[in-house]
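Could you help me review a protein record that somebody else here produced? Do not assume that whoever made the record got everything right. The record follows directly below this note.
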Amino acid sequence: MSLESGHLQTYEYGAESMVLRPWKMLAGMWRDLIDNRQLARILAVRDLSAQYRQSLFGLFWILAPPIVVAVGLSVAQQNKILSFGTSSIPTPAYILIGMCFWQVFAQAVSGPLQVMGSYRSVLTKVVVPPEAIILSSMVKLGITATLQIILIFFTFLWFHLPFSSTTLLGIPVMVLTAIFGTGVGLLIMPIGLLYRDVALAIPIVEKGWLAVTPVVFAAKTLDPGGFYATTARLNPMTYLISTARQLVAGEHVTMIPQFLCVVAISSVMLLIGLILVRAAMPLVIERWSA
């Protein structure tokens, strides 16, 4: 039965893997995305309403992490506990902009797994295209990204930062950050739906990943050698966040080749992730029903 229409649908399963017919699979995925966009919106609104139903401050909690981190680290720098080097913009604004992009990435990674896992009981009883649930996760991610953009705008007003001709280019970079994070999230989602360890490991891995991402430091301040500097330079988020911050602040963009490489990798990861989810979900649902 279709969750949206209530009508019976017939699905045919055979021995041939869908991966052997990738173009047919991609066409089916696109068709399901278009047909279920209304369902995705309904699911996103339902999830957000349930999440913040008993919350006094509601969507403000989406903005809280970057604000708290920026204020805390700025106080640490003022008291000479930490040093983040020099920047053309005030340290709180520098950290806040980086954290806004990181917040979008972090939700993009964990979002697909969380939302798909929350519909486990539904998926074992009702035929729901996984793309509809993934799309609902992306709708919520879009709301988060919009709020982060608004927060960056108010950061510019609060610190009297000048708007440059490249400031608005930070918006497409935030979209690309969401695509990269969603690609990572989709790749780990099938195994994460079967083993709880993945969901428990994601926050831990994200903290380690954040430590080697130039959110509170500038990539140019790292010494050429050393394990830490090498890890930071191999980190795709280094080029997304550094480029985004340079564009937003009107600075000279120094990592264009690496940034374009990450963009290409993100597109491939998203495509592979969607194909993997499409092929793996019938097996995951079968394991859930066993």
In short: The chain has one domain: 41-289. The chain is about 70% helix and 0% strand. Residues 101 and 174 are 6 Å apart (CA to CA). Confidence is low (pLDDT under 50) at residues 1-15.
